[in-house]
Amino acid sequence: MNALTPIDRDGSHRGPVRPDPLPEAEGVLPPGTALRGESAVIHYAPDRLHPVAQVVAANTPLDDPTFPHLLAMMCQICAPQAQVKQLLGAIPAAPDTPPSEALLATMANLGFEARRRAARPRKLRRIWGVALFCPAAGAPVLLFDGTDGRRWAYDGQRPPREICPRLARAKGTVWGFRSSL
Protein backbone atom coordinates (compact mmCIF):
# COMPACT_ATOMS: atom_id res chain seq x y z
CA MET A 1 0.00 0.00 0.00
CA ASN A 2 1.35 3.40 -0.95
CA ALA A 3 1.77 5.82 1.98
CA LEU A 4 0.13 8.52 -0.13
CA THR A 5 -3.08 6.68 -0.97
CA PRO A 6 -6.12 8.89 -0.34
CA ILE A 7 -7.90 7.95 2.89
CA ASP A 8 -11.66 8.01 3.49
CA ARG A 9 -13.07 9.22 6.80
CA ASP A 10 -13.57 5.64 7.96
CA GLY A 11 -9.83 4.94 7.46
CA SER A 12 -10.26 2.84 4.31
CA HIS A 13 -8.01 3.48 1.34
CA ARG A 14 -9.08 4.15 -2.22
CA GLY A 15 -7.45 5.08 -5.50
CA PRO A 16 -6.91 8.61 -6.83
CA VAL A 17 -10.11 10.51 -7.52
CA ARG A 18 -8.88 13.17 -9.90
CA PRO A 19 -6.40 13.59 -12.73
CA ASP A 20 -2.75 13.79 -11.79
CA PRO A 21 -1.94 17.50 -11.18
CA LEU A 22 1.84 17.02 -11.46
CA PRO A 23 3.32 15.86 -14.75
CA GLU A 24 6.27 13.50 -14.58
CA ALA A 25 9.27 15.12 -12.96
CA GLU A 26 12.93 14.28 -12.94
CA GLY A 27 13.25 12.81 -9.48
CA VAL A 28 11.44 11.69 -6.37
CA LEU A 29 12.42 13.20 -3.02
CA PRO A 30 14.45 10.61 -1.07
CA PRO A 31 13.80 10.13 2.67
CA GLY A 32 16.21 12.07 4.86
CA THR A 33 16.67 14.91 2.36
CA ALA A 34 17.39 18.20 4.11
CA LEU A 35 14.70 20.82 3.44
CA ARG A 36 14.62 24.49 4.39
CA GLY A 37 12.17 24.89 7.24
CA GLU A 38 11.04 28.34 8.31
CA SER A 39 13.79 28.66 10.90
CA ALA A 40 15.73 25.38 10.75
CA VAL A 41 16.68 22.53 8.46
CA ILE A 42 14.05 19.78 8.42
CA HIS A 43 14.74 16.23 7.22
CA TYR A 44 12.02 14.69 5.07
CA ALA A 45 10.50 11.68 6.87
CA PRO A 46 7.70 10.06 4.85
CA ASP A 47 7.09 7.48 7.59
CA ARG A 48 5.83 10.34 9.82
CA LEU A 49 3.38 11.66 7.23
CA HIS A 50 1.00 8.71 6.92
CA PRO A 51 -0.06 8.45 10.61
CA VAL A 52 -0.77 12.19 10.78
CA ALA A 53 -2.70 12.06 7.49
CA GLN A 54 -4.78 9.13 8.80
CA VAL A 55 -5.75 10.99 11.98
CA VAL A 56 -6.62 14.14 10.00
CA ALA A 57 -8.69 12.17 7.46
CA ALA A 58 -10.64 10.43 10.22
CA ASN A 59 -11.38 13.66 12.08
CA THR A 60 -11.97 16.31 9.42
CA PRO A 61 -15.25 17.29 7.79
CA LEU A 62 -13.47 17.99 4.48
CA ASP A 63 -14.06 15.58 1.61
CA ASP A 64 -10.87 16.14 -0.41
CA PRO A 65 -8.69 13.00 -0.14
CA THR A 66 -5.42 14.92 -0.64
CA PHE A 67 -6.06 17.50 2.11
CA PRO A 68 -4.78 15.28 4.98
CA HIS A 69 -1.55 14.52 3.10
CA LEU A 70 -0.91 18.14 2.12
CA LEU A 71 -1.56 19.30 5.68
CA ALA A 72 0.72 16.61 7.14
CA MET A 73 3.56 17.73 4.83
CA MET A 74 2.99 21.41 5.64
CA CYS A 75 3.17 20.64 9.34
CA GLN A 76 6.27 18.47 8.98
CA ILE A 77 8.10 21.39 7.36
CA CYS A 78 6.58 24.46 9.06
CA ALA A 79 5.30 23.25 12.42
CA PRO A 80 7.03 19.99 13.37
CA GLN A 81 6.34 20.72 17.05
CA ALA A 82 2.55 20.99 16.56
CA GLN A 83 0.51 18.43 18.47
CA VAL A 84 -2.24 16.46 16.78
CA LYS A 85 -4.98 18.05 18.92
CA GLN A 86 -3.74 21.54 17.90
CA LEU A 87 -3.77 20.46 14.27
CA LEU A 88 -7.29 19.02 14.43
CA GLY A 89 -8.58 22.11 16.25
CA ALA A 90 -7.16 24.35 13.52
CA ILE A 91 -9.00 22.68 10.60
CA PRO A 92 -12.09 24.58 9.34
CA ALA A 93 -15.40 22.93 10.19
CA ALA A 94 -17.22 23.63 6.91
CA PRO A 95 -17.22 20.44 4.76
CA ASP A 96 -17.51 22.33 1.47
CA THR A 97 -14.34 24.42 1.99
CA PRO A 98 -12.01 24.06 -1.04
CA PRO A 99 -8.69 22.39 -0.12
CA SER A 100 -6.56 25.47 -0.83
CA GLU A 101 -8.75 27.67 1.39
CA ALA A 102 -8.81 24.98 4.10
CA LEU A 103 -4.99 24.79 4.06
CA LEU A 104 -4.69 28.60 4.30
CA ALA A 105 -7.22 28.73 7.16
CA THR A 106 -5.60 25.84 9.04
CA MET A 107 -2.16 27.41 8.85
CA ALA A 108 -3.61 30.76 10.02
CA ASN A 109 -5.27 28.98 12.96
CA LEU A 110 -1.90 27.40 13.81
CA GLY A 111 -0.35 30.88 14.04
CA PHE A 112 1.07 31.35 10.54
CA GLU A 113 0.61 34.42 8.40
CA ALA A 114 -0.01 33.71 4.72
CA ARG A 115 1.47 36.13 2.20
CA ARG A 116 0.93 36.19 -1.52
CA ARG A 117 4.37 35.62 -2.99
CA ALA A 118 4.19 35.36 -6.78
CA ALA A 119 1.96 34.52 -9.70
CA ARG A 120 4.14 31.61 -10.86
CA PRO A 121 6.38 29.15 -9.03
CA ARG A 122 9.42 29.99 -11.18
CA LYS A 123 9.32 33.60 -9.94
CA LEU A 124 10.10 32.54 -6.37
CA ARG A 125 13.71 33.13 -5.42
CA ARG A 126 13.82 31.00 -2.30
CA ILE A 127 11.25 29.21 -0.18
CA TRP A 128 11.76 29.11 3.57
CA GLY A 129 9.38 26.50 4.88
CA VAL A 130 6.64 25.68 2.42
CA ALA A 131 4.69 27.56 -0.24
CA LEU A 132 1.18 26.69 -1.39
CA PHE A 133 0.67 27.00 -5.14
CA CYS A 134 -2.97 27.36 -6.19
CA PRO A 135 -2.97 27.00 -9.98
CA ALA A 136 -5.54 28.85 -12.07
CA ALA A 137 -6.86 25.42 -13.10
CA GLY A 138 -6.24 22.37 -10.99
CA ALA A 139 -5.54 21.21 -7.46
CA PRO A 140 -3.21 22.86 -4.92
CA VAL A 141 0.45 21.83 -4.82
CA LEU A 142 3.03 22.40 -2.08
CA LEU A 143 6.43 23.76 -3.05
CA PHE A 144 9.55 23.60 -0.91
CA ASP A 145 13.31 23.90 -1.34
CA GLY A 146 16.01 21.47 -0.39
CA THR A 147 19.22 22.76 1.13
CA ASP A 148 20.96 21.61 -2.07
CA GLY A 149 19.07 24.24 -4.12
CA ARG A 150 16.60 21.85 -5.74
CA ARG A 151 12.89 22.74 -5.63
CA TRP A 152 10.29 20.08 -4.86
CA ALA A 153 6.53 19.81 -5.47
CA TYR A 154 3.99 17.69 -3.59
CA ASP A 155 0.40 17.11 -4.69
CA GLY A 156 -0.78 14.88 -1.83
CA GLN A 157 -1.15 11.85 -4.11
CA ARG A 158 2.42 10.80 -4.96
CA PRO A 159 5.80 11.22 -3.29
CA PRO A 160 7.29 14.73 -3.60
CA ARG A 161 9.04 15.24 -6.94
CA GLU A 162 11.49 17.70 -8.32
CA ILE A 163 9.54 20.54 -9.88
CA CYS A 164 9.11 20.25 -13.64
CA PRO A 165 9.24 23.14 -16.13
CA ARG A 166 5.51 22.95 -16.92
CA LEU A 167 4.54 23.41 -13.28
CA ALA A 168 7.17 26.14 -12.80
CA ARG A 169 5.55 28.18 -15.61
CA ALA A 170 1.92 27.54 -14.56
CA LYS A 171 -0.22 30.55 -13.68
CA GLY A 172 -1.93 30.85 -10.34
CA THR A 173 -1.22 32.18 -6.84
CA VAL A 174 1.69 31.23 -4.60
CA TRP A 175 1.28 31.67 -0.85
CA GLY A 176 4.20 31.73 1.57
CA PHE A 177 3.88 31.21 5.32
CA ARG A 178 5.64 32.89 8.23
CA SER A 179 5.07 32.18 11.89
CA SER A 180 3.25 35.08 13.56
CA LEU A 181 3.90 33.72 17.06
Summing up helix and strand content along with how strands pair, one would put the structural category as alpha+beta
What value does the average pLDDT take?
80
The side-by-side strand order for the widest beta sheet comes to 3-8-4-5-6-7
- Our Rg estimate from Cα atoms comes to 15 Å
Please tell me what the overall shape is: globular
Measured between the Cα atoms of the first and last residue, the distance is 38 Å
Proportion of residues in helical segments: 25-40%
Number of strands: 8
Percent of residues in beta strands? 15-25%
Sheet of most strands = 6 strands, antiparallel
Annotation field: number of helices: 5
Low-pLDDT segments, ≥5 res: 1-6, 13-25
Secondary-structure element series: EEHHHHEEEEEHE
Sum up the structure in keywords.
181 residues, 5 helices, 27% helix, 20% strand
Q: TL;DR?
A:
The protein has 181 residues and is of the alpha+beta class.
Q: What does the model show?
A:
With 181 residues, the chain is of the alpha+beta class. The protein has five helices and eight strands. It has helices spanning 46-59, 67-78, 84-90, 99-109, 165-169; strands at 34-36, 41-43, 112-118, 131-135, 141-145, 151-154, 161-162, 172-179. The chain has a six-stranded antiparallel beta sheet. β4 (131-135) and β5 (141-145) form a beta hairpin. Mean pLDDT is 80; it is low at 1-6 and 13-25.
